[in-house]
Design a protein that fits this description.
This protein has 289 residues and is an alpha+beta fold. Helices cover 24% and strands 21% of the residues. Bound molecules: benzoic acid and fe (iii) ion. Residues 73, 76, 100, 102-104, 193, 212, 245 line the site of benzoic acid.
């Protein structure tokens, strides 16, 4: 095909996909080309602007490393992660809502016994977390794998420290026979997503801040239930309505109750203030009846 112009180029590219064996790939790439071309037409994209776009994407790639995923940050800050999570986790009313995964999960965090201080030296005020894991009909889910991770009082995850030699404020637990769980960690505080790279520059240029409201991450998996990736947020946080990555669901916002020094839920007498956080999770069964 020759003499393609701005009115015929899109169809020509799509026609070139005719022999794609993988039908899903064909659908996705055809739609992507259509929307990319539509975008360029709609904004009347200049060559200088597209060169800047390519330079930006190159910088995003260069910013990636085994401990930094700038493309996830880009997807998160553009709201794409929240959109994809929402359309992949439509759940019946009553189930705990999912939210973004983020770039700081680590596979294979050490398994700890219920009640353990998973902070493991991470800086922050103590927080006793407890609750239950249940199915939609109220049945306790025993032995659910509960992965938790959070930032410390400086707003940093353990993996952001050099070297990352120990798991801190991060662990894997298993729910008890009655579906209950409890552990000791630290109070979450708001923190900015990494913004010293190209995504941070883009946020700046758009007049946006990089802050996330305080939260504790959970991934909960159990046979027969949809895996739940979610956070629990702190009521009263100043960034609940302007989360840099659009992850807040009001059903996940709860009071983290602060207590003066004294008797803690684990029977310890603490000489510093501490908080308690209670949250019950409801998993979506993968099969009904
Ligand atoms: C997080 O909550 O860990 C996170 C999510 C999205 C982007 C950056 C961090
Ligand atoms: Fe986080």
């Amino acid at each position: 095909m020759q003499n393609l112009d701005e009115t015929t180029i899109t169809q020509a590219v799509i026609a070139r996909h005719a022999n794609t064996a993988d039908q899903r790939l064909k659908t996705v790439m055809t739609c992507l080309v259509r929307h990319l071309h539509c975008f360029a037409r709609e904004v009347d994209l200049t060559e200088v602007e597209w060169a800047a776009g390519l330079e930006f994407l190159t910088a995003v790639g260069h910013a990636c490393s085994p401990t930094r995923q700038e493309f996830i940050l880009l997807s998160d800050t553009l709201g794409l992660s929240t959109l994809v999570a929402a359309q992949n986790h439509r759940k019946p009313v009553g189930c705990t809502e999912a939210t973004v995964f983020g770039p700081f999960h680590v596979e294979g965090a050490p398994e700890r016994a219920l009640g353990t201080d998973v902070a493991n030296g991470a800086e922050g005020e103590p927080c006793f977390v407890r609750g239950s894991i249940r199915g939609l009909a109220g049945e306790p889910v025993a032995g659910a794998v509960i992965e938790i991770w959070q930032a410390d009082a400086r707003g940093l995850y353990d993996v952001q420290y050099e070297p990352f030699d120990e798991h801190r404020a991060r662990a894997t637990l298993r729910s008890a026979a009655d579906g209950g769980y409890h552990f000791l960690s630290i109070v979450a505080t708001p923190y900015p997503i990494p913004h010293d790279g190209p995504v941070g520059q883009l946020l700046d240029a758009l007049g946006r801040h990089p802050w996330r409201p305080a939260h504790l991450h959970f991934r909960i998996s159990a046979p027969g239930y949809e895996t739940l990736v979610t956070h629990v947020f702190r009521a009263g946080d100043p960034y609940l309505d302007s989360d840099a990555v659009f992850g807040v669901r009001s059903s996940l916002v709860v009071d983290w109750v602060r207590h003066e020094a004294g008797l803690a839920p684990n029977g310890q007498l603490l000489d510093i203030p501490f908080s308690t956080l209670d949250f019950d999770f409801v998993l979506n069964p993968t099969h009904q009846g």
